[in-house]
Every structure is written in structure tokens, then in C-alpha cells.
Design goal:
Elements (H helix, E strand, L loop, with lengths): L11 H9 L4 H20 L10 H4 L18 H13 L5 H11 L3 H34 L1
Helix pairs in contact: 5-6
Length: 143
């Protein structure tokens, strides 16, 4: 397909976004009209209820909006202590054990599973750091 000189009217960032969506030149020009309308409305400050759906929704592609993160939550100290006690005895609980732990500490199983994953990662990094420190101490102590 031969590219015309009008294909250069898209900025590099726009082209890279289209490439991520696996759009070809023909599809880019179809979406371009919708993008221009949307940009004009955004510039005018039209309220959210009066705006059209984004251009990517017109072509049947999911919107590329950023994922909204959940707020961080801090576990109560009693809950954290209970989870640490279980972690000392079993670092890799099964799905059934995770559900039982979740019921006992009144948390969702997903949160308990994530807590164990994070705790194993922290444990691994701490152990690695301690072994490096011990090695360095032994080397420096011998000199």
C-alpha cells in the first residue's frame, strides 16, 4: 500500500498508539474524524454527560484509559500478627488453607494470598541481603 503525503499529519505518539491497537492506515483515517471531534469538545470543556464515547470505542476496541488503582490498606496489628504466625509455620499455604486463614482473620482470600506472596518476596530479599552481608563480613574479617 502506497503512503500518501497526508499520512504525515499524525504525530509519532499518535501513530505509536495506533500501532499498539494494531490499526492500519485506513483505520487510522476512519478514527481520525472521531478524534478531532472529541479533541474539540475537550478543548471547549463540554461536560462529561454530553461527550461522545472515545474514538477507540467507535471501532470496537476497548478504551485505553488508565487502570484505577485501589487505595493501600494497612492491616490491623492483630491481623498482621496472626498472618505472621501462620507464615512462620507454612510459607506456601494451599487454596483451602488460604480460605481458612481468611475466615479466621476476617479478610478476603485474595488479600491473604497477596499478603503471603509479598511476605515471601520480602523474606527472599532479606535472606539474600543477609547472606551477602555475612559473606562481606567474613571476607573483611579474614583480612
Amino acid at each position: 500500500m502506497k503512503l500518501s503525503t497526508t499520512a504525515l499529519c499524525f504525530s509519532i505518539s499518535i501513530v505509536s498508539r495506533f500501532e499498539l491497537l494494531k490499526f492500519d492506515i485506513k483505520q487510522m483515517y476512519k478514527v481520525r474524524q472521531h478524534l478531532e471531534v472529541w479533541q474539540r469538545k475537550m478543548a471547549k470543556g463540554v461536560s462529561e454527560s454530553q461527550r461522545e464515547p472515545s474514538a477507540t470505542q467507535h471501532v470496537g476496541v476497548m478504551s485505553c484509559r488508565a487502570k484505577i488503582r485501589n487505595k493501600r490498606s494497612i492491616l490491623p496489628s492483630e491481623t498482621a500478627d496472626a498472618l505472621k504466625e501462620v507464615f512462620r509455620t507454612n510459607q506456601h499455604p494451599s487454596a483451602i488453607e488460604i480460605k481458612a486463614i481468611a475466615c479466621s482473620v476476617k479478610l478476603e482470600p485474595r488479600r491473604v494470598r497477596n499478603w503471603f506472596k509479598k511476605r515471601r518476596h520480602i523474606f527472599k530479599i532479606t535472606a539474600r541481603q543477609n547472606s551477602c552481608d555475612d559473606f562481606i563480613d567474613s571476607v573483611l574479617g579474614e583480612k
